[in-house]
Amino acid sequence: MREAPLHGVAAEFRHPDALTGAVEALKAAGYRRLDVYTPFPMRDLAHALGWQARILPWIAAGAGLAGAAVQYGGQYWMNAVDLPLNVGGRPLHAWPAFVPASVIVAILWAGAATLLAMLAILRLPRLDHPVFSVPGFARVSQDRFFVVIRADDPLFAAGGAREALAALGPDRIEEVRGA
Amino acid sequence: MTADSAVQPGARQVADRALARGYGAAWLAALAVSGALIGLLVWTLGAAWIRGVGVWGVNIPFVWGFDLINYAWWIGVANGASLFAAILVLRRHDLRTAVNRFAEATALMAVVCAGLFPIIHLGRPWLFYWVFPYPATTELWPQFRSTLTWDFWAISTHALVTSLLWYVGLIPDLATLRDRAPTRWRAQVYGLLALGWRFSLRHWAYHQVAYRIVAVLVLPLILVMQSTVAFEFASTLVPGWHDTRLPLHFVTSGLAQGLATVLFVAALLRRTLRLERIIDDADMNLLGRLVLAASLAAGYLFLDEALSTWLSDPVRQRAGLERFTGTYAPFAILAFLLAVLVPQILWWRAARLGFWGPVLVGLSVNAAVWCDRFSLLIGGLQRGHLPSLGGTYAPTLTEAGLLLGTLGLFAALMLLFARFVPVVALYEVRHDEHQERT
Predict the structure, then answer these.
(1) Nearest-CA residue of chain B relative to A90?
(2) Is the pLDDT confidence value at B387 over 70?
(3) Could you tell me how many helices (H) and strands (E) chain A has, helices first?
(4) To the nearest whole angstrom, how far is the Cα of B320 from the nearest Cα of chain A?
(5) Is residue B226 pLDDT above 80, yes or no?
(6) Cβ–Cβ contact A53 with B under 8 A
(7) How does DSSP classify residue B278?
(8) CA distance A133 to B81
(9) Residues in a beta bridge with A34
């Protein structure tokens, strides 16, 4: 049986501070394609690695405005243009009555777009991933911290990723295989 | 596993609770009782479906009864609870760890109960899709100048956005359950629901922003929801309803009601699941004070009602006097007593931290808001000028089944939630425990 292609090398840490130190050292050493896995969000470390979801609020706002426009326009077109129904001489374009549904639908579109955009950007759902094959990786959902130097890092080909990780004092080092 | 448990008792304890094989006879008994009440609900709704809304006590002038009272009541629970959860997410408050997951669940289950009513009280529930604009062969469009169509958009959005807030926060915890599940098929179920979450820090960055965006969206949504219900009354010409202060009254008492429900659920979970360490005294203390503050705000709104009645025109004055002295006065007076006076026991620290104090206040404020909605709705409709309109509102037993049945539905959903899903956010507990250790 052929061995699965190499995805990277993983190092396991027990403490968030050890992980932060390790990631900073690897960045200083010039590694760029790092994956970090933590049991809870670590905002400062994510910012240091340039992982910020700045686009999400804009997507939500855009989707909300589009939803409001579609809802308002739809109500106007249906009640004032396509089916103008005279009810006691009340105005056909009754904008105050059209506002509540427009606001509500804007919220609906913004919320749905947020979830869908998040999943699309993160390429989820993805039930299988090479990193799951690392023995003991399930502990990341409880109390272990992992950093992975990916095989597509320019520095990786030169070798020495394993040694670079070993110098940071992790609990253990594992190869990550799979596609 | 014992050595591991010593490392992170809190998060493990909650996760393993959801994965436990059995859950005790008390849980099963509670589920059986609520299951029986759901049976009652099915029977009640079935009667209304097959025989029509004539099985209820509604008639001219009481065109609205339990159907609308319960709807407004459940919406109050949902809004108060989700407003609270959303504010906790946005403020990154310490209390969030303990309570925001089950506050979100409380909101979601209440929306499910509320969502039944607008469909059922249409009278011909199987035609509910008529309010949705679709290209019908009749070539007619819904009439958007009618408030009825607001309900459709409001309820469906409320249900979706509330479940979104709950689910987005839940994804990483479902992944923890996937990793700890004792059997393969449970790991598969939790794994599918977790969408392959792998705790990547980059994913966390997006997740936290998405969670906060949804929380931001909940804030305007619930204000719109609660005031939409109120505006639907206010846009009629019934003297007790035609009032611009009504949305504020609904929002304020709804918030007190939702907070009291969260306090009630917190006390129950703390006691039954032994979560005293996670939902600790500081949490109960703060939550109790919030309920107290909300009930004082509700009291202020009652005073505002008295003042605005006194300052308004004679017709409005008569309607206002009627609310506190007329046929249905006991409901209005009970509402005031139960919503404003009973929560005053929360001034005592012992009452906030105990079990019976929160339970009493939770039940009392909820009963109060129900009485308040009854008094507003039925009392508001009562004035007529024909002798034939002189009777009082007489709800039928079938109608009472709507209230009991939705209570059962809510209880059953909450019991299942507490059984299969972590009742607090595991990753938050984990974070706090790491910080405590360092």
Answers:
(1) B145
(2) no
(3) 5, 4
(4) 28
(5) no
(6) yes
(7) T
(8) 41
(9) A149
Q: Which tokens belong to B249?
A: 């009254």
* Residue reference for tokens 């109790």: B288
Considering only alpha carbons, which residue of chain B is nearest residue A128? B196
Q: Which domain holds residue B426?
A: 26-132+141-433
Please give the tally of structural domains in chain B: 1
What is the arithmetic mean of pLDDT over B86-91?
A: 84
| Minimum-distance CB partner of B144 among A16, A57, A79 | A79
Tell me if B15 is assigned to some domain.
Answer: no
Check CB contact under 8 Å for A51 and B202. Answer: yes
| CB pair distance less than 8 Å for A104 and B224 | yes
Number of Cβ pairs < 8 A linking chain A and chain B: 189
Bigger pLDDT: B148 or B155?
A: B155
Residue B7, pLDDT above cutoff 50: no
Chain A interface includes B176 (CB < 8 A) = yes
Q: Report which of B19, B23, B22, B24 is spatially closest to residue B184, judged by C-alpha positions.
A: B19
Residues 6+ apart with CB under 8 A from B408: B33, B34, B35, B36, B37, B38, B40, B41
Cα B121 to Cα B53: distance, rounded to the nearest angstrom: 7
Q: Compute the nearest-CA separation of B160 from chain A (Å).
A: 8
Q: Are B171 and B194 in contact (CB under 8 A)?
A: yes
Closest to B328 (Cα-Cα) out of B386, B395, B388:
B395
The structure tokens listed for A159 are 């070798």
Long-range contacts of B273-276 (CB under 8 A, 24+ apart): B273/B17, B273/B418, B273/B423, B275/B14, B275/B423, B275/B424
B172 vs A143: CB contact, 8 Å cut-off?
no
Q: How confident is the model at residue B62 (pLDDT cuts 50, 70, 90)?
A: confident
User: What are the helix (H) ranges across B235-280?
Assistant: 246-272
Rounded mean pLDDT of A73-102? 92
**Residue B221 included in any domain:** yes
Chain B residues with CB-CB distance to A129 below 8 A: 196, 198
Determine whether the interchain pair B228/A90 forms a contact, defined as Cβ–Cβ distance below 8 Å: no
Tell me the two tokens of residue A5.
């292609």
- Asked if B205 and A56 come within 8 Å (Cβ–Cβ), the reply is no
Of B140, B150, B438, the CB nearest to A83: B140
**For residue B46, what are its two tokens?**
């079935």
Q: Kindly state whether A79 is in contact with chain B, defined as any CB-CB distance less than 8 angstroms.
A: yes
pTM for this structure?
Answer: 0.90
Is B192 part of the contact surface with chain A (CB cutoff 8 Å)?
A: yes
B interface test, pick of A33, A58, A81, A107 with most B CB neighbours within 10 Å:
A107
Please give the Cα distance from B288 to B343 (Å, whole number). 9
3-state secondary structure of B152: helix
Residue B5 domain-assigned? no
Q: pLDDT at residue B396 above 90? A: no
Environment class of B257 (CB within 10 Å of its CB; exposed 0-12, middle 13-18, buried 19+): buried
Q: Which residues contact B82 (CB under 8 A, 6 or more apart)?
A: B103, B104, B107, B162, B165, B218, B222, B258
Residue B223 maps to which CATH number? 1.20.1630.10
pLDDT of A147 above 70: yes
B150 domain-assigned: yes
ipTM of the complex: 0.94
